[in-house]
Amino acid sequence: MTRLFNPPSLTPLFAAYVDGELAASATLWPFARVAGIYSVGTLSAYRKQGLATAVLQTLLAHAKQQGFSHAVLRTIRPLFPVYKPLGFEFVGEVANFVG
What is the DSSP letter of 33? Predict the structure, then answer.
């Protein structure tokens, strides 16, 4: 199913490994000339080591090289300080339907 919804040729995964273990990752979803950033995560044992930042910097450099001038992501307010130093700005909140 992962290959169906996340074909590597269209949605590359960017990852950081520590001693051969996947420690942090993020996925690039290109859509309408905008680089969508999804599934950013770091295993708890590797947090606060700059791994997610390094992964995102690599992802953003790749997106720029591919011709994207804009990138977007959705996060929760407490995590926004992780993204602000990378140049992201807070533009609003999303209303979610819970049925």
Answer: T
Nearest to 37 by CA among 59, 62, 5: 59
Do 74 and 64 touch, CB atoms closer than 8 A?
no
Q: At which residue do the structure tokens 């910097």 appear?
A: 57
Quote the CA–CA distance of 33 and 64 in Å, as a whole number.
11
Q: Does pTM surpass 0.85?
A: no
pLDDT digits (tens, 9 = 90+) for 49-95: 999 999 999 999 999 999 999 999 988 888 888 899 999 998 887 77
Beta carbons within 8 Å of 36's beta carbon, 6+ residues apart: 28, 29, 30, 71, 72, 73
